[in-house]
Write a structure and sequence with these properties.
CATH superfamily of the largest domain: Isopropylmalate Dehydrogenase
Strand content: 15-25%
Number of domains: 2
Radius of gyration: 20 Å
Helix content: 40-55%
CATH topology of the largest domain: Isopropylmalate Dehydrogenase
Structural class: alpha/beta
CATH architecture of the largest domain: 3-Layer(aba) Sandwich
Order of helices and strands: EHEHHEHEHEEEHEHEHEHEEHHH
Largest sheet: 10 strands, mixed
Bound molecules: nicotinamide-adenine-dinucleotide
Number of helices: 12
Length: 355
């Protein structure tokens, strides 16, 4: 297969971790007989420095012309004084909305070797936690009409969803579940919200086309408790924008390792943007200390979701797991006194295990 990938290294540790992911992609392509071409795009602080804006139209166009985008991270203290519309983080919003990405996938996994990093008790996570939050990204209360009364004494934010918006993300969740343990939990507040009742009806109708996937429903207050009480219960959590925003951060925190968490933003076709959930870590930038695993796992997600290369994605994930099992650690995931390696050495250890 021939893949055209846009790289958005961004700022801080971004260039280093993207370089690592590219090395892993190249090795994987070699091993499985694919070819990859890359195109590098400026976005975030580096784009502000070069062009006076966090994202140029040319950059967005280049990203749109590719098959998929791999992003490092943007931002840093250098640009903290910039006004809102000119902040590096605007590049992310510009890319997500400009590329029409409506579905956010955030896996949270606790590796047995790193279980001690989780803030949860061992008895709660023993046997492993492996879930993914599927969050609707472009609808709901964040995008509904909002305003204040004339005297400023009251305010409102409208939560609205159409059937079509729910259907398209539900399909994404069921498809994701088919690549996993085949269980979707819809998280909502159907005892109070009309939008949640529409979600339940619509997802239930879509579920008839996925009879091999188990479907259940959970109120969001309960789901937020179950995530810390018994996270092993979950496979795919499907939810609307605001609930997903909160639950995906909660799910990340239970793993205890921000440098390990990947994400994908998808739309109806195979196109997607893939990025670690962490930021540009300016405190360790340029010191070969960044953990590249979140970005490497984002690249694996890219192979799975944008190119349907399941074997190849799994080869990368298995190599990461094997490296961890063999004691390979970057500083952020090393226990006190444990030896650790730098960004590129960690990447080499993973590449060695791809075979
Ligand atoms: P951060 O995620 O960059 O860093 C938080 C802490 O985690 C830091 O101590 C950092 O060293 C550590 N860390 C993060 N990623 C790591 C990795 N791969 N390996 C090892 N350690 C890692 O969050 P922050 O400090 O709040 O933000 C720094 C900058 O990043 C800000 O400008 C912020 O706006 C931006 N940011 C960007 C994104 C993005 O591009 N998606 C996301 C969050 C924050």
């Amino acid at each position: 297969m021939e893949m055209h990938i846009a790289l958005v290294p961004g700022d801080g540790i971004g260039p280093d971790i993207v370089r690592s992911a590219v090395r892993v992609l190249d090795r994987t392509a070699d091993r499985f007989g694919h070819s990859i071409s890359y195109r590098e795009i400026d976005a975030g602080g580096i784009s502000i420095d070069r062009y006076g804006r966090p994202l140029t139209e040319d950059a967005l166009e280049s990203a749109a012309e590719s098959d998929a985008v791999l992003l490092g991270a943007v931002g840093g203290p250098k640009w903290d004084h910039m006004p809102g519309s000119l902040r590096p983080e605007k590049a992310l919003l510009g890319l997500r909305s400009g590329l029409g990405l409506f579905c956010n996938l955030r896996p949270a996994r606790i590796y047995p070797e790193l279980a001690a990093a989780s803030p949860l008790k061992q008895s709660v996570i023993s046997g492993g936690v492996d879930l993914v939050v599927v969050r609707e990204l472009t609808g709901g209360i964040y995008f509904g009409e909002k305003g204040r009364s004339e005297d400023g004494g009251s305010a409102y934010d409208v939560m609205s969803y159409s059937k079509a918006e729910i259907e398209r993300i539900a399909r994404k969740a069921f498809e994701a579940a088919r690549l996993r343990r085949r269980r979707v939990t819809v998280v909502d507040k159907a005892n109070v919200l009309e939008t949640s009742r529409l979600w339940r009806e619509t997802v239930s109708a879509i579920a008839t086309s996925y009879s091999d996937v188990e479907l259940d429903f959970m109120y969001v207050d309960n789901a937020s408790m179950q995530l810390v009480r018994d996270p092993r219960h979950f496979d795919v959590l499907l939810t609307e924008n605001m609930f997903g925003d909160i639950l995906s951060d909660e799910a990340s925190m239970i793993t205890g390792s921000i440098g390990m968490l990947a994400s994908a933003s998808l739309r109806d076709d195979a196109f997607g943007m893939y990025e670690p959930i962490h930021g540009s870590a300016p405190d360790i930038a340029g010191r070969d200390l960044a953990n590249p695993i979140a970005t490497i796992l984002s690249a694996a997600m890219m192979l799975r979701y944008s190119f349907s290369l399941e074997k190849e994605a799994k080869a990368i994930e298995d190599a990461v797991e094997a490296a961890l099992a063999d004691g390979v650690r970057t500083k952020d995931i090393a226990s006190e006194g444990e030896e650790y390696v730098g960004t590129q050495a960690c990447c080499s250890e993973i590449i060695r295990r791809i075979g």
